[in-house]
Amino acid sequence: MAPGRRQVLVVRGGWEGHQPRETTNLFMSFLRENGFRILVEDSLEVYEDEKLLAQTDLIVQCWTLGDITRAESEGLAAAVRAGTGFAGWHGGILDAFPDDRAYRLLVGGQAVPDMPGPRSQRVRLSGEHADHPVIAGLRDFEVPTPPYWVHDDPLNDVLATVTFDADEARERPVAIPAVWTRRWGRGRVFVSTIGHGLDDFAVPEVRAITERGLLWGSR
To answer: 36, 87, 102, 209: which has the fewest C-beta neighbours closer than 10 Å?
Structure first.
């Protein structure tokens, strides 16, 4: 790696419905313009490469569903605890490896599939964290795809929420986290529930939050 340059590892695969190649490709030029050397992997075995991960400043993962081995999961978590950043969006980070509880602790949340809710989402930015570099200067916005219902970790700094209204099962409206950051050991983790496909990233605020989140997550 050239002196002074950061390295990003893009790990993509899993269920093709979330367009892992197409959506990650949207950010390649941005990452290069911000000084990153990019490595792309389509196998989770890379998470067992301790030396490579130690040299990596940011992992961008887009891998919906699938299984991860214990060695791969432990290698990923160890790298983040040691300082490697971890970032992703929608199912590529929140619906990855649903049977791995250690992974849930790393990302700070889990998507709950097929939860009834609105057909589109009004994303409301946090007033408490209005000066956070991921959302500073932005305003609430609309996204044309349904939101995720998520179970989240109290250690998350929630930067944006979406509202699910009351219905026959839910007795009152509730704000569900849509974007958050967290620290895990010495590493930074950025998660956005938004990013079902290319249409979501056509919304300027979604694109801006994702790009800023990638930069924030990198060591």
So the answer is: 102
153: which residues sit within 8 A by CB, 6+ positions away? 105, 108, 109, 182
pTM, rounded to two decimals:
0.96
Side-chain half-sphere of 207: how many Cα atoms within 13 Å?
13
Which positions ≥6 away from 167 have C-beta within 8 Å? Answer: 116
**Distance of CA 55 to CAs 49, 50, 216, Å?**
10, 9, 18
Which DSSP category does 66 fall into? -
- 102: tokens are 């250690």
Query: At 190, is the secondary structure helix, strand, or coil?
Result: strand
| Rounded Cα–Cα distance for residues 177 and 162 (Å) | 7
110, 86, 115: which is closest to 96 by C-alpha?
110
> Could you tell me which residues are beta bridge partners of residue 166?
none
Q: Using one digit for the tens of pLDDT, what is the confidence trace for 2-57? A: 545 899 999 999 999 999 999 999 999 999 999 999 999 999 999 999 999 999 99
Q: Which among 144, 158, 138 is positioned nearest to 203, based on CA atoms? A: 144
Q: Is 27 helix (H, G, I), strand (E, B) or coil?
A: coil
What does the block give as tokens for 64? 């919906």
Q: How many residues does the chain have?
A: 219
Q: How far is CA 178 from CA 48, 51, 55, 104, 219, in A?
A: 30, 33, 30, 16, 23
Burial 12-46 (b: 16+ CB within 10 A, else e): bbbeeebbbeebbebbeeebeeeebbbbebeebeb
